[in-house]
Amino acid sequence: MRFLLLTLYLIAMTTVAAQNADDNIIVTQETSTYHLREKNGRLSSVKAVNTKKFLARRADDTALAVTFFNNDISIDKASAPGARPQYRAWENDDLFYDGSRVCYLKVPLKKDKEASAVMERTYKTPEQFCEIMLTSPYYTENARYEINVPSKLSAAINITPMYLPEGVKLQREVSSNGDLTYIVELVSRKGSRNEPLAPPPSISSPKLMITGLFRDVAQLYSFMHGTILPDNGDTAPLAAQAAALVDGLDNNFDRAAAIADWVRLNIRYLAVEHGEYAFRPDQASSVFQKRYGDCKGSANLIKAMLRSVGIDGRLVWIGTAGHVDTDWTEIPSVASGNHMIAAAILPDTILYLDGTASYCPRGYYTPGITGRQVIIEDGDNFIISRVPENANGSDMYCFNASFRVNGTDIAGTVEHRLSGVYRYAFENAYNGRDASRRDDFVRSYLSPPKRTVEWETISVADVAPDASETRLTADVVEKKAVNMVGDKMYLDLRPLRNITLKPVVEKGRTKGIRLTSGFKMTANIDVYVPDGYKIDPATERCKKFDSPWFNGWVMTESTPDGIRCTAEVNTGDTEASLNAVPEWNKALRDLINISNTQIALIKQ
After folding, report:
1. Which among 23, 29, 28, 82 has a CA at the least distance from the CA of 58?
2. Residue 101 pLDDT > 90, yes or no?
3. Smallest Cα–Cα separation from 34: which of 70, 55, 6?
4. Residue 232 belongs to domain spanning
5. Which of 386, 404, 435 finishes a domain?
6. Are residues 205 and 280 in the same domain?
7. 3-class DSSP state of 261
């Protein structure tokens, strides 16, 4: 539900390289004003005016001014010298589709001459006005944001700053008639940019939250639930399908899971412009007939199919981890949610069912919803609950191999066992490709970094869509994994080869680190070595690494036929502050260096 259009601005502007003080195009002054309009003691609309003064300092250039709109947010003006507004449909990766469209201006700039771009909009549905992002892709010398609140709304409407830069404060001015003006001023603001492993902008960039549009969660729920209409279509076909799916199943847990699996695999996720300001789900009968829909549509279909077989199905509003950082009870606002799922209310538990989570292991909750607070519909009432955490070790990657030394290569069989988020990610990537390209994908997925591999056979186990584990096997030759130095033989096994994390650039970084989820990796590698060789005693030991973020070990030991290398890594904290990034980098390098240490063999 990141229909919060100013948040969308951040995403669209990733097409513009982040600008800083030494770049050609800068913004000398940005002014954004938001005039709240009152009617009968309630917020009726919001007039938003944004003006940017662009400057090209070294050469003629073209700047880009962007804003978003939809059926409930109008574009009243979009102008700049020499530019004509252009309008396009907007698609993004959000599950809670809202039909947003983009308006942009390509502003021609002459060297050393300022040019102003003006964008004016009206929020006709004030519930959409819930946060203001204080960012820009351009370096900005001065930026000023004003929110004007009429006196009749001043007691209800509140502005909460989040993630403001050090030294920046929210100012508050009161006029003689009681009107309030909230002001934030930013000086020498750097252009926003993508940073590897950084928290998403919506939970880390400066913003203002507008609260008070709803008194409490009850009023918010009444608003959201009021958008749901009875299904006036033909529901018999979906009921028949549900009955066929649950035929022969003897418990409601399996029945609910079977229905959710069918929806995930047969209803294509598609951002369709449907729904009153992003809230009203398409009717279940329509989604079933069309075989596509957004998260609201798939959730509504799961609910209808559950109810058709006697299971208490409900709709659930949720804010996903990594995109929403507030609970419903913390800030009762539409900004606290961006997704809709379904729930099966069983006698002893609540089973949460995400219609967009294809190939999700049964009983497993994806990192986006795990631990997140939810609002579950309950007629005129509602239920506040929280999605359970997965059991420890649910996200696991197990690597097993049996090699023999063959000159400068190692050859043998490898096995990769994926569970939790690893299985979920792999199966979606694998099945999302054309069948003719899947083997190439598996080869790329299984290949160790910076190593040439010859493939003989590849097998992906054929399992149920909601199986707990995916098993990949292959017969391989890993080239140049053996190095001879005099009488010594060095084996390059890299047991923790499946860690894809890399140290991040520290210079110029502005944000900390946030992993999507924790994980556990294990490795068990047997190597049959040529007669006459044994492991160097200096190599035959356990090397440990321990930090707040990664802990584990790599052990090498002798076996009757050669050597065995085992390893394990577990994540601890999944976040590191900006100040801790150097320490996080060192912890990751230590892990990688221990894993990549070659094993020495000497002649007996």
Report:
1. 23
2. no
3. 6
4. 225-386
5. 386
6. no
7. helix
